[in-house]
Amino acid sequence: MKNKENIKTKFRIGVDASLLSEQMTGIGRYTNEILSRLVASDHEWFLYSHRSLVVGEWEFDNVHLRTGNVPKRLLRMVWAQSVLPYWASKDELDLFWSPAHRLPSFLPVSVARVVTIHDLVWKHAGETMRPLSRWVDATLMPEAVRLADQVITVSEHTANDLLIEMPSARGKVQSIPLGVSLLASAKSKESLTLLGLSEPFFLFVGTLEPRKNLYRLLEAFSLLPNSLKQSVILTIAGGKGWGGVDIGTIAEKFGVQNRVRVLGYVSDEELATLYTHALFLAMPSLYEGFGLPLLEAMSRGTAVLTSDCASMPEVVGNAGLLIDPNDVNSISKALSELLGDNELRINLAGLAKINAKRFNWDRTAEKTMRVFEDTIKLRQKMLVN
């Protein structure tokens, strides 16, 4: 029997931190929230990226940055399959974690592997993706799941989707829900005048791309009685994605161009302020693996409207108004209810704050670390056998 002194308790863990080299979106926030907690442990952490990191503070003695100078997205895939596994080998890792869907094919056999799968958009809403991105995900995600010792999903719905599509993964999939980001302190309602907002508003948050269903949201808004439309502004916060979603053109088509504000990408402080003072959040997505804006809004005590499909009902529980995202009339009816019924909004807002307490980044990070430790043991046992 081995002495306790000979049992390794300090591990060398590598992470694909590429998403921390660009403006923070959902998966980047997930990566940052978990890593910022895990690096407080005694383990050695190696953060790999094709470019310098711009998100997070990583100046710790046990954190080592390995960054390149790869400017183009397409070359990033080449880097991930060549330079990254070379660095992982040189750093003598015990475990490598990819927080976003893909794993290098040529990691040393001694390295345990964990991948996080956020969604299967390529399978269930592939028409809303760039053709190249859809092909890459459809090709590399199943390969990452095959290579992984353990797979983390961010919702039970994504876990079920994954096992239906890749039944051979059964036994190595674990669902660990996301947490609530503190973002920043919200500023006063009056501060929103700097963003051009001085009237009551409801809010959409997300990347502007077809999957977010903004076309139907704007059409549904246009169907409201004129008295409701003139009483509120639809405010859209989020960076541009693919697919040519031109809010101005769509709003003009439906005659609501004067009742819509497009803010683009906003800071965490601005986002917190928008969530806090919005009448409600409207997120009628066609598909989500989780839906972080729902949780962020609910934690601020803001009512939410969202779709009755994918993971969204799992996240909002009884604290949201659910719609059929393919039915414009369903969306419009829910908008009318939330805008016209102050008591309904107040009740949902109260439930939202209670529901949000189910989600906690500290628990997410703790469960993730447990997966890492268990996976290292599994890999070591496999090597011995």
Protein described:
The two termini are 17 Å apart. Strands 3-2-1-4-5-6-7 form a 7-stranded parallel beta sheet. Strands 8-9-10 form a 3-stranded parallel beta sheet, with helices on both faces. It is elongated, with a radius of gyration of 22 Å. The protein has 15 helices and 13 strands. Helix 1 (26-38) packs across helix 15 (361-384) and helix 11 packs across helix 14 (342-356). 43% of the residues are buried. It has 385 residues and is an alpha/beta fold. Residues 1-6 have low confidence and may be disordered.
The percentage helix is 40-55%
Mean pLDDT: 92
Number of strands: 13
Number of continuous helical runs: 15
* Rg for CA atoms: 22 Å
Gap between N and C termini, in Å? 17 Å
In terms of structural class, how would the helical and strand content be classed? Answer: alpha/beta
In terms of DSSP E residues, the strand content is 15-25%
Quick one: biggest sheet? 7 strands, parallel
Strand order of the largest sheet: 3-2-1-4-5-6-7
Cα shape? elongated
Would you list the SSEs in sequence order as H and E? EHEEHHEEHHEHEEHHEHEHEHEHEHHH
Poorly predicted residue ranges: 1-6
